[in-house]
Design goal:
- The chain crosses the membrane at residues 16-37.
- Residues 42-61 are annotated as: Disordered.
- Keywords: Membrane, Transmembrane, Transmembrane helix.
- With 61 residues, the protein is mostly helical.
- The chain has one domain.
- The protein has 2 helices and no strands.
- The radius of gyration is 21 Å and the shape is rod-shaped.
């Protein structure tokens, strides 16, 4: 009788942690930009760039 030998699958947690880090960075930036917009302040360039917004074009929105 022939049996299949299962190879142990290697799983790295780093990509998962990196993904969660990116998700939290985007959420944090969205909250910061939203709070700045509500209080009529210009958001930080870093937060705008995290959201894919060109800081030079932000006032035109």
């Amino acid at each position: 009788m022939h049996t299949l030998a299962l190879k142990p699958q290697s799983f790295s947690i780093r990509p998962v942690l990196a993904w969660f880090g990116t998700v939290f960075a985007v959420i944090d930036a969205a909250i910061a930009v939203s709070a700045a917009a509500e209080s009529h302040r210009k958001p930080k360039e870093r937060d705008l760039r995290t959201l894919g917004i060109n800081p030079a074009q932000y006032p035109t929105f």
